[in-house]
Design a protein that fits this description.
Number of helices: 3
Structural class: alpha+beta
Order of helices and strands: EEEEHEEHH
Radius of gyration: 16 Å
Strand content: 25-35%
Number of strands: 6
CATH superfamily: Mago nashi
Oligomer: single chain
Distance between the termini: 49 Å
CATH class: Alpha Beta
């Protein structure tokens, strides 16, 4: 297994293709040593859209627990594939994990039989971002969409 400092999780979430100001996107990065960062775009990235970055720390046991969940859910052993007929509309999420001597890229729009395994992992990654940060980002987003 790779040293904890060499591990990295990059999770990305994007709201459905909707008109501004209802669209937003974010990326969560968690390093094996517990350093975390969220980057949040309150609209489609680029141009005048700001990118809010907030760093946070994740306890070592929580990082280890996430990797245990990933192993249990087959992240490192499943041949992930995109759905043959991706759904139209709706949000999307995907993840890249660098650990255990390899890089695993799970595409957005998985087939139904693979979605359940990843939904638990995605929920766990989002859960490592402190609630206070989610609250702050939502507050900023509401203020951004008002002008």
């Amino acid at each position: 297994m790779m040293a904890a400092t060499e591990s990295e999780i990059i999770y990305y979430w994007s709201e459905a293709a909707v008109p501004p100001p209802h669209h937003y996107e974010y990326e969560v990065r968690i390093q094996g040593d517990g350093r975390g960062e969220i980057r949040f775009w309150p609209d489609y990235p680029g141009g005048e859209t700001p990118c809010w970055q907030i760093s946070f720390s994740v306890a070592a046991e929580d990082v280890q627990g996430l990797f245990r969940l990933m192993r249990t859910r087959g992240l490192f052993t499943t041949p992930w594939r995109a759905a043959e007929e991706p759904p139209v509309g709706g949000s999307s999420e995907w993840i890249t994990v660098r650990a255990e001597g390899r890089v695993v890229e799970v595409p957005a729009c998985l087939p139904p039989e693979q979605q359940e395994a990843m939904s638990r992992i995605y929920q766990a990654v989002r859960g490592l971002v402190p609630v206070a940060i989610w609250t702050e980002l939502e507050k900023r987003r509401r203020a951004y969409t008002r002008f």
